[in-house]
Amino acid sequence: MFKKRVSGEQIALPKQSIFVDVHAHILPQLDDGPDDIEQSIAIIRSMYAMGYRKIIATPHVMSGYYNNVPEDILQALQILKSVLKKRNIAMEVEAAAEYYLEDELFRLIERREILTFGGDKKYLLFEASFVSRPSYILESTLKIKQAGYTPVLAHPERYNNLNDLEVLHRLVFNGLLFQVNIGSLTGYYSKQTQELAEMLINKKMVAFFGTDCHNEAQLASIRAAFELPIYQTAIKQNLLNNSLLETKKKELIST
Ligand SMILES: [Fe+2]
Questions:
Q1: Mind listing the pLDDT tens digit for each residue in 45-72?
Q2: Residue 5 CA, ligand 1 centroid: distance in Å
Q3: What is the CATH classification number for the domain harbouring 111?
Q4: pTM as predicted
Q5: pLDDT at 4 > cutoff 50
Q6: How many domains does the chain contain in total?
Q7: What is the DSSP code string of the chain?
Q8: Ligand 1 centroid to 253 CA: how many Å?
């Protein structure tokens, strides 16, 4: 724990220094995240206490399971924002989505019915089947880029077929960004997932960290990860998370 002076008062900042979460299921009733707005607020309050100041809400979009269209997601965002304001919770929230890699995604891209984050950078967060062939992910990366978006693969450490440094290098070389789940570092998902996440950090291949939080209980593994040396190594690298903060907030944090 260390202290920084902001607007004349001493506030304690947690020892983690990622202030923006780019992958979180915090909008109620859109996917397997919170069941209601009170659960959403509970997650957000806990994340604020952990040091987060901005969350990109990324509900699942998967045809047949989570048919979330931008209008529904943005409407849920507006409701959440108004409740946060009423309750004086200073967490900034935006919305994008976690798109499942399937033919439907490319139809949505064609119709421009896609929610991204990072303004002009147009970061498009997607996940794939855990048994996807690397060639399919590579081909999709190139198509997403060609359409003018920046592809970001959610939790690459969770895909068995990506457990190969050469494959990972090829994907990065072709413009794919990796978003690692912080909880992976504690072995929350599996030992193999943990080892691959560590390798991605050690090879400096991580662009973003995310919580992939679906409920408040899951935050325990994120808090535990903050204490790990590998996490402390990772946050000293050139992660893009804090580039998504407003300039004013960035100044507060760097002073
Ligand atoms: Fe997710």
A1: 999 999 999 999 999 999 999 999 999 9
A2: 35
A3: 3.20.20.140
A4: 0.92
A5: no
A6: 1
A7: -EEEEETTEEEEE-S----EEEEE--STTSSSS-SSHHHHHHHHHHHHHTT--EEEE--EEBTTTB---HHHHHHHHHHHHHHHHHTT---EEEE--EEE-SHHHHHHHHTT----BSGGG-EEEEE--TT--HHHHHHHHHHHHHTT-EEEEE-GGG-GGG--HHHHHHHHHTT-EEEEEGGGGGTSS-HHHHHHHHHHHHTT---EEE--B-SGGGHHHHHHHHTSHHHHHHTTS--SGGGGS-HHHHHHHH-
A8: 27
